[in-house]
Amino acid sequence: MARIKITFQPGHKQIHLGLTGKDGEMQVMWVSNPEHYNAPVVEYGLIPGLLKQSVNGTYHTYNVGKVGGFHGRIYVAIMKDLKPNHRYYYRVGDLITRTFSKTKYFTSAPLKVQSLDEVNVAIFGDMGTFAPFGHFVIDKIAKDHFVKPFNLVFLTGDIAYAGMNSQARGESEPIWDLFG
Fold it and tell me: Taking 70 as the threshold, does the pLDDT of residue 165 lie above it?
């Protein structure tokens, strides 16, 4: 049986947003190789290409397994002073190397005291870690989103513990980069 060597390429991957529970805030998390990026930052603003606000991030190292699994850094930064119900553009990166992700966007949360007429939420978990099962799930979610866009997507399950040293069963941590 041939061995497949999987390497974690440089770059900012698996970029995810999360609510902090505070008005005007949004948390950003992402991963990368530990040796490449030492000054994490998120740049954001209301106009793409003109990201006037920035916040420095923190990181910690997380290693799973001796062979295979995730070996890298997990970065966290919290964007603050966001206006409610506005589209924000953002990118994650490193101040020293001046390397950044592609610019992404989100709509900030309403204030806690605001009422909403309708909220469209996707909640899913346990997508299956063997290809192609996870792809079927994400494909369905993407199709539903194009019919009626989600305000929020909540994921619990496999992706939270993907690549737990199980490459012998056909699982591979880098496949989860496809979802980020």
Answer: no
The span from the CA of 127 to the CA of 156, in Å, is 9
Q: What is the DSSP string of 32-75?
A: E-TTT-SSEEEEEESBTTB--EEEE-EEEEEE--SSSS-EEEEE
Compare 163 and 15 and report the one with higher pLDDT: 15
Question: If DSSP codes are grouped into helix, strand and coil, which group holds residue 112?
Answer: coil
Sign of CA dihedral 134, 168, 175, 123: positive
Decide which of 3.50.30.10, 3.40.1050.10, 2.60.40.380, 1.25.40.10 is the CATH code for 1-111.
2.60.40.380
- The enclosing H or E element of 147 equals helix 133-147
Single out the residue of 46, 43, 55 nearest to residue 90, CA to CA. Answer: 43
